[in-house]
Write a structure and sequence with these properties.
The structure is a single chain. By secondary structure, this protein is mostly helical. It has one domain. The chain is built from 4 helices and no strands. The chain has helices at 3-24, 33-42, 48-59, 61-88. The longest helix is centred in the last third of the chain and has 28 residues, at 61-88. The mean pLDDT is 82.
């Protein structure tokens, strides 16, 4: 394992998590930030439809829809990061 690559991967994870925290700050979902980050990590290889249905299942119809809409624009960014991080660790 390359220490520099691992450090860069961890820094990127922290950056994305910070962006999610900032996105949720001041919303009704601030207290659920950790659960939402876990949800994103679990779904990192899924398509948008699976993110949507998963958010409905995990957070309920009303909250799941709102959470999905908040995260929708960041999903592709996050998936791109995961793909790059996985390539670096191979």
């Amino acid at each position: 394992m390359d220490l520099a690559a691992e450090c860069a991967r961890i820094e990127e994870i922290n950056k994305v998590q910070k962006e999610i925290r900032e996105l949720l700050q001041g919303t009704a979902y601030t207290e659920r930030t950790a659960k939402i980050i876990d949800f994103i990590d679990e779904r990192k290889n899924c398509e948008k439809k699976e993110w949507y249905t998963g958010s409905l299942h995990r957070f309920g119809r009303k909250d799941g829809t709102v959470i999905y809409r908040l995260l929708k624009n960041g999903i592709n960014h996050y998936k791109k990061y995961i793909a790059n991080a996985n390539e670096k660790t191979k």
